[in-house]
Amino acid sequence: MKATRIIHFLTIVLVSVCRCNASASENDTPLPIPTIDAAASVGYFYASGRYVGESGAQVIQGAMYVEVLRPRRVAHRYPLVLIHGAGQTGTNWLGTPDGRQGWAQYFLTRGYVIYIVDQPARGRSAWHRGVDGELKSVPAPLVEKLFTAPEEFGAWPQAQKHTQWPGEGRLEGRMGDPVFDAFYSTQVESLVSNTETQKLVQSAGAALLDRIGPAILLTHSQAGAFGWLIADARPNLVKGIIAIEPLGPPFRDAVLGDGKARPWGLADIELTYDPPVATPDEISIVQQKLPDAPDLYACWLQTDPARRLPNLTHIPIMVVTSEASYHAVYDHCTVRYLRQVGAHVDFVRLEEAGIHGNGHMMMLEKNNMAIASILARWAGSSIR
Length: 384
Fold this sequence. Notes:
Layout: H1 2-27, E1 39-47, E2 50-52, E3 59-61, E4 64-71, E5 80-83, H2 91-94, H3 103-109, E6 114-118, E7 135-136, H4 140-148, H5 178-184, E8 190-191, H6 194-212, E9 215-220, H7 224-233, E10 238-244, E11 285-287, E12 300-302, E13 316-321, H8 331-340, E14 344-349, H9 368-382
Parallel strand pairs: 5-6, 5-9, 9-10, 10-13, 13-14
Antiparallel strand pairs: 1-4, 2-3, 4-6, 7-8, 11-12
Helix pairs in contact: 6-7
């Protein structure tokens, strides 16, 4: 009888604990919902895409979802096209995981028409089994390591400087923190193949510009390659490129790997060089004997005389790198290569502009609007 009472008591305690935990989760104050109150109108359409498949079973492959936000007063000649990186969708630009306004709102209030895409085979752009390639996902622990809590892992020298991810308490930037969970909920599967991805986005990006006319491209991470490729395909329609920590460095991975990559220098697929090359093997490259500084990667560059990328030479380009991201180790190599091929590039390391503690997802971090103001000033002074 005594044992029965003890078991009954323990059961009550356990149930009470479970209920307390459940009610704590259910009663937590919900995170604020970011708003886009500067938009006078919101619309969408799909760019590119073609029917593929056997007769009677055709589907459209390669169509890219495009969301359109128009301000109450258009103040700029050229719109902004915002292109997200790997594992992401256009939600990166619409708000932050802790409920603050995002870069779309910032640029809307300054009179830009905004186009926000979901890459083909991603998010609201359909992926078709048996037509599109294999997908991959990014596990939550890797997101912690790369984006939200790199200071806890120290996988690259600059990681310890990371302070700007939103959240608080012992779980800040980690699984179980409401802000982290809100961010990780936005992560989606993306194509394994960089080559396939770049072909799809270059085609869809060109089709988008054919429809909307000249525009400024704002790219992030994986989308950095898309900026160069879309400009290569439509050089007269790209009026500026703002590359936030673009895919790189040229020719070989760094920090997250050490294999050959991006055989065309800035991309995995063909770019238009002058003098022309039939295959990327014709591009002669050499690595720096010493890096520019102890905590930086030794860049791979072309041997002299370097071939040029003529379709990029007339386009104003801005490359932005944060203080604590893994890109802080090697983005200078992408900038050096762009300059070597004849492009005009303004390179901004945020710490040199007085903005400290940011990681790779700077558009979502606590000081995201301070960074957006730097982009806006550059666009206002550099793009005509």
